[in-house]
Amino acid sequence: MIAFFRLVRAEGLKLRHSAVLRLIWVIPILFLAVEFLVFERPFLGLGVLNAKAQATLDTLQLKMVVSLWGFLHPLVLALLPALLFRPEHRFKTWRHLLSMPIARGSLFLAKAFHALILSALVLLILCLLLWIERRLLGLINPALAIPFHGAAMARTLSWLWLGSLPALAIYLWASDRISSLAVPIFFGLVGLLMAIALTGEELHQPWRRDLIPWVLPYAAAERQIHAGPSQQEVHLAGRPFQPEPNVLRLPSGRKIKTWQNAPDEVIFPPPKPTPAGVLATFSLGAAVLVLLLAWMDAKRCRI
């Protein structure tokens, strides 16, 4: 155990001048800049907020964390393990490391430990930046002095981190096996496309969609702010491709407005969403299983 903590400390020393530390604060700042310029800045010129505008601003940060951060989060998950393993792959130090009196799988576990901590640290920095943004908006324009929903934000980000564990474990295994940064980035983009394409789809058994490792982070976080009778709100990038309510689109492309006495969700009620307990249990179980397999694979001969 003492040897393992020494490995963890050694891995921490490697991070002092690495790109990993820049990644965990540059990406949240980039998200905050886009979120402020596109969504928050138009409110600065309003002297008084009506009820609708106040309700929109009140829930804007939570919705943007689930929707807009969904573009960046899969890439963060893919890049973290790749950058953690980059020094060993780049300088080909595996032969030297494995000649030392340490267990072969311990180095992988030390890197996995740092990946878990850093992935949580990214979300903590994001939460802190959003709190600072809300306070500054209130100082600049008193009409925008809306309380920061810290408990709801922490709950949403916690579920996002929990749902990310299976995908993070897969990326750790892939980064241990593959030295190229392009492969994890490719899988990160594939995960983003899967989340965009599959979220919002009305399935008879929603768990078949929600338990896909790349869809699971969005599904777990979205359930914390979910409202309405539908199974799940579609990803922000996928909304333009969703069918419009009470509109029938013909094969020619022409739209016909329909009318009915009751909405679709009343006539054809969607099945119940995947319970939170199932999401949490699957996330933890799948992450532990993949990490165990990756740890056993890390004991291989690398020469």
UniProtKB/TrEMBL annotation:
Segments passing through the bilayer: 20-39, 66-85, 106-132, 152-174, 181-200, 276-296
Organism: Candidatus Geothrix skivensis
One Pfam family from the record: ABC2_membrane_4
Keyword field contains Membrane: yes
Protein name listed in UniProt: ABC transporter permease
Keywords in alphabetical order: Membrane, Transmembrane, Transmembrane helix
Superkingdom classification of source: Bacteria
